[in-house]
């Protein structure tokens, strides 16, 4: 069998709402910004910036799933890609626990260290059709990452690949096949296996089931939960489907126009959403229950452009509870009074006056 | 029990096949249902189950290699019954019905709006196609329609091209295009799949409003059980070209009798689901449509399959119009 | 344990698809037959293509000379067979040379973008503003006649087509998720470029190579006919036709120009059929 990662911390597993022990934090993001310049005219003058991720602070604990949810254009995918360092952030800090040294800033590593960290953070993409190279067999696609990270001899590597395929419930001899021979659900499981084969500790899952059929979604979601338990993996689970995120995550960050507007344990978020946007989002999810007595909040209009986000609270033009202060002052993410782990960025919510990061000092 | 005048559409034993170079795919394999005026029929199923092909067969918008080989589709217009499957695909009678009597909304608003014409032009063209009306009057109606659908400053936005509209606005424009001739039947093929949840909620509300106002009948095709529960009066669950379960929302969602319907309902996470609870999965994947299993198509993936399932199950009426295609539907399934 | 399984192969699958494509198979058979004949030339004809036999000049086809002899008494059939070697060599090498240059520049340009891409794009545009035959004529005058020169000239005048094709492919492929996945593993840029993206551009490049082979064989014939191609001592299809420049030869001695003319047409037709078929087979959307 494969050597699995260290034992489970039963405490955190059982009650994710517990005040975090900071030694558990595996990834800590602070004030992360990712701006894309907008060019215009013949001389390619920079006329503005798309603020895809605008001052986001989050942390992920070992063995937990952090859900990122929001509508298209809210910056959740960009944030995910920044975590895997497929995009380099414009500014901010990102610290990751690896090696002996505890938390280290992974945005300012030298080439060698940067390469080592790549092993620890992996990504699974949304589209199972474009995430596997059509001209490479599964074996070829898996072998190279193992080789560049010097994981075992040729025979050992083959063994690892075979085991990984079995872990995701596929036959080990499928490794000699090409991607076109697999269905969407199988491809997604292969993508997961590929991400797992170099033993990462954190996996960013960018809408891993959105492109799959309903009956296949369940297979993949169950598999991901099992793997998390077996290997004590941490997930950053990105999706637009609230019910899937709610099912998968321990904590959820709701994003709107590049910012986190609410951060809470998934039960707390579902039972007592504090931000009007979260409320609207939750109420908009259609559920297959008869006689469901939920009042649907239908938001007006569309998501504004992230090039010129509204002043003050970015949600105010669509908010039914909008007040004068919302138009002027941008709300900070603050802890909701009387809760353990529920943060919201809304002027109208009953919050403590301490900003979020005050508690985050390690 | 239905009086004929109540019906708007009757599909009987519809069979649509695709003739590919070396094989024949039975995309729709004996589908029968009736639709009453002013009601919404939700057609649910996974990709490849034939739900879209059924809808496209009704308006004869099939690709070249697809053809209706058997069955009848009767549309009850105000001038009496019309047998749609007998009409020429692109004949004048079919064209007169498409757009005027039966409106359509598709999944991808990007692909359904022509990028080189303004929104107003496209809506007005649909009116002038079917009614003797001046261009200016048609434009006026288009503005009226867009205003009703909640597009601000419709009289100026109507001169915009599709790329100037956001996703939700485009889908509104599509609805305007489909509804402007006041069709009796609206076919909506995954109308909100490409949209965000909040925009989806807007569009669904709009469709309800329009239905309320005009008494339109809607065929709503979707893979999302939640949308069906919210929108539909009747549900048809399709699997591999057949309707496996048909009934009112209460019958099908309240007491699903087909194992496939049950599995579908239990495999999606619902808000507020317990964390430890595992989702129910359906074994394997959908079979290759050109090589379907003998007997019940779902049998190889079904937990309750018996020897009897080697023969195609009969369409059993459980009373009250609740029809199920399963040998085990009479005795209650235990889950 | 790893169980031994039936290996499936992309090549095998494409070969199966190709076999079902009638036109491509006809093309393939024609090309294969003609190449085989050229390779086996010494077995098919006893004469040397360059042996002059002034005793039997301009003889019509007979048993000893199935396609007759030319002005210098050389056997037309042997010249045709040996000429096929040179003509096909020039066509194929020219096309391959252009493809290799174009692919390498296209890779770098498409993957990294930046100033290199901008410069190369303009250079390729300059190349493409000249009609290729005029460009070749200028280069022939500059570099002089000769077999290797001609191959070289075809290569450097033919790269922009492949360059633009590969560059365009790279632009779209570098955004694919599997490329991002490679980056997430920390696999090096060169490896991503040449081992992961490049193989995906091969299908259209192969099609271009086949089709431009046909073009270069025609170009060689044209140049040789004008006396600007391969030196007249070396038999090529173009050089054989060169002897039919006089009007009386065209009307009185059809065996001198008809066989090489037919050979050129047949080969080009075969290559084009094959290339078109290949395009259909290698198109993943089919």
Automatic annotation (TrEMBL), chain B:
| Localization (cell) | Cell membrane
Reply yes or no: does the keyword Nucleotide-binding apply: yes
**What SUPFAM superfamilies does the database record attribute to this sequence?**
P-loop containing nucleoside triphosphate hydrolases
GO MF terms listed in the record are: ATP binding
For this protein, the record's InterPro entries field holds:
AAA+_ATPase, ABC_Ni/Peptide_Import, ABC_transporter-like_ATP-bd, ABC_transporter-like_CS, Oligopep_ABC_C, P-loop_NTPase
Keywords of the record, alphabetical order, are: ATP-binding, Cell membrane, Membrane, Nucleotide-binding, Transport
Q: Which domain of life is it from?
A: Bacteria
Please identify the protein, giving its name as recorded.
Peptide ABC transporter ATP-binding protein
What species was this sequence derived from?
Answer: Gordoniibacillus kamchatkensis
């Amino acid at each position: 069998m494969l050597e699995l990662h260290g034992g489970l911390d039963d405490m955190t597993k059982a009650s994710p709402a517990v005040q975090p022990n900071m030694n558990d934090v595996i990834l800590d993001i602070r004030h992360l910004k990712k701006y894309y310049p907008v060019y215009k005219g013949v001389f390619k003058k920079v006329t503005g910036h798309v603020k895809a991720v605008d001052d986001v602070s989050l942390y992920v604990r070992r063995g937990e799933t952090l859900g990122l949810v929001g509508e298209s254009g809210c910056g959740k995918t960009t944030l995910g890609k920044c975590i895997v360092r497929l995009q380099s952030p414009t500014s901010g800090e990102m610290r990751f626990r690896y090696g002996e040294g505890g938390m280290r800033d992974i945005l300012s590593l030298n080439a060698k260290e940067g390469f080592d960290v790549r092993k620890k953070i992996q990504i699974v993409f949304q589209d199972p059709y474009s995430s596997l190279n059509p001209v490479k067999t599964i074996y070829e696609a898996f072998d190279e990452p193992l080789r560049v990270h010097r994981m075992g001899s040729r025979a050992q590597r083959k063994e690892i690949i075979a085991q990984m395929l079995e872990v995701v419930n596929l036959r080990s001899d499928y490794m000699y096949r090409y991607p076109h021979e697999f269905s969407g659900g199988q491809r997604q499981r292969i993508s997961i296996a590929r991400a797992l084969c170099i033993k990462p500790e954190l996996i960013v899952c960018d809408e891993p089931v959105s492109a799959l059929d309903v009956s296949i979604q369940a297979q993949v979601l169950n598999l991901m939960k099992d793997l998390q338990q077996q290997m004590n993996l941490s997930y950053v689970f990105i999706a637009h489907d609230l019910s899937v995120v709610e099912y998968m995550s321990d904590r959820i960050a709701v994003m709107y126009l590049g910012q986190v507007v609410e951060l809470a344990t998934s039960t707390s978020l579902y039972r007592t959403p504090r931000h009007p946007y979260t409320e609207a989002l939750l109420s908009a999810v259609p559920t297959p229950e008869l006689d469901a007595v939920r009042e649907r909040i239908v938001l007006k209009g569309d998501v504004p452009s992230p090039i010129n986000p509204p002043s003050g609270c970015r949600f105010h033009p669509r908010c039914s509870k909008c007040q004068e202060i919302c138009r002027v002052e941008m709300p900070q993410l603050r802890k909701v009074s009387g809760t353990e782990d529920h943060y919201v960025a809304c002027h109208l919510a009953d919050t403590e006056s301490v900003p979020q990061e005050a508690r985050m000092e390690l | 029990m239905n009086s004929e005048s109540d019906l708007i559409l009757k599909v009987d034993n519809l069979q649509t096949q695709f003739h590919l170079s070396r094989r024949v795919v039975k995309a729709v394999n004996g589908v029968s249902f009736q639709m009453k005026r002013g009601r919404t029929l939700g057609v649910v199923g996974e990709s490849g189950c034939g739900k879209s092909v059924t809808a496209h067969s009704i308006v004869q918008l099939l690709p070249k290699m697809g053809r209706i080989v058997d069955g009848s589709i009767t549309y009850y217009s105000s001038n009496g019954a019309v047998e749609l499957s007998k009409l020429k695909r692109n004949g004048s009678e079919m064209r007169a019905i498409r757009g005027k009597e039966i409106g359509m909304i598709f999944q991808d608003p990007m692909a359904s709006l022509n990028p080189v014409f303004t929104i107003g032009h496209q809506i007005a063209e649909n009116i002038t196609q079917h009614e003797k009306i001046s261009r200016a009057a048609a434009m006026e109606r288009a503005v009226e329609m867009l205003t009703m659908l909640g597009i601000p400053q419709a009289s100026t936005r109507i001169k915009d091209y599709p790329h100037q509209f956001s996703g939700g606005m485009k889908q509104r424009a599509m609805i305007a295009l489909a509804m402007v001739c006041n069709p009796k039947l609206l076919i909506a093929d995954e109308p909100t799949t490409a949209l965000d949840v909040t925009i989806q909620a807007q569009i669904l509300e709009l469709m309800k409003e329009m239905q309320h106002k005009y008494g339109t009948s809607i065929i709503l095709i979707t893979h999302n059980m939640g949308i069906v529960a919210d929108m539909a009066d009747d549900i048809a669950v399709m699997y591999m070209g057949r309707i496996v379960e048909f009934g009112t929302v209460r019958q099908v969602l309240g007491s699903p009798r087909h194992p496939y319907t049950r599995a579908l309902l239990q495999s999606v996470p619902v808000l507020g689901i317990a964390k430890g609870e595992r989702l129910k999965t359906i074994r394997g994947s959908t079979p290759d449509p050109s090589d379907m299993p003998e007997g019940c198509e779902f049998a190889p993936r079904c937990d309750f399959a018996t020897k009897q399932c080697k023969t195609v199950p009969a369409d059993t009426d459980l009373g009250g119009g609740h029809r199920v295609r399963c040998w085990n539907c009479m005795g209650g399934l235990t889950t | 344990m790893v169980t031994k399984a039936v290996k499936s192969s992309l090549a095998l699958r494409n070969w199966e698809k190709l076999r079902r494509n009638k036109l491509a198979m006809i093309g393939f058979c024609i090309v294969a037959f003609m190449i085989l004949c050229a390779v086996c030339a010494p077995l098919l004809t006893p004469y040397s293509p360059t042996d002059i036999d002034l005793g039997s000049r301009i003889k019509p086809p007979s048993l000893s000379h199935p396609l007759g002899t030319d002005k210098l008494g050389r056997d037309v059939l042997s010249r045709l067979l040996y000429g096929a070697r040179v003509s096909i060599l020039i066509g194929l090498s020219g096309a391959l040379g252009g493809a290799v240059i174009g692919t390498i520049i296209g890779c770098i340009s498409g993957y990294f973008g930046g100033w290199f891409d901008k410069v190369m794009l303009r250079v390729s545009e300059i190349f493409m503003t000249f009609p290729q035959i005029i460009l070749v004529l200028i280069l022939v005058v500059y570099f002089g006649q000769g077999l290797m020169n001609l191959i070289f000239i075809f290569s450097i005048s033919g790269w922009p087509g492949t360059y633009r094709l590969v560059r365009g492919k790279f632009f779209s492929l570098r955004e694919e998720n599997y490329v991002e996945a490679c980056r997430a593993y920390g696999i090096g840029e060169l490896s991503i470029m040449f081992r992961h993206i490049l193989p995906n551009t091969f299908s259209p490049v192969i099609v271009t190579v086949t089709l431009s082979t046909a073009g270069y064989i025609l170009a060689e014939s044209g140049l040789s006919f004008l006396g600007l191609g391969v030196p007249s001592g070396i038999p090529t299809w173009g050089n054989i036709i060169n002897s039919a420049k006089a009007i009386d030869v065209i009307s009185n001695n059809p065996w001198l120009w008809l066989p090489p003319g037919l050979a050129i047409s047949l080969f080009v037709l075969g290559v084009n059929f094959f290339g078109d078929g290949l395009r259909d087979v290698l198109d993943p959307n089919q």
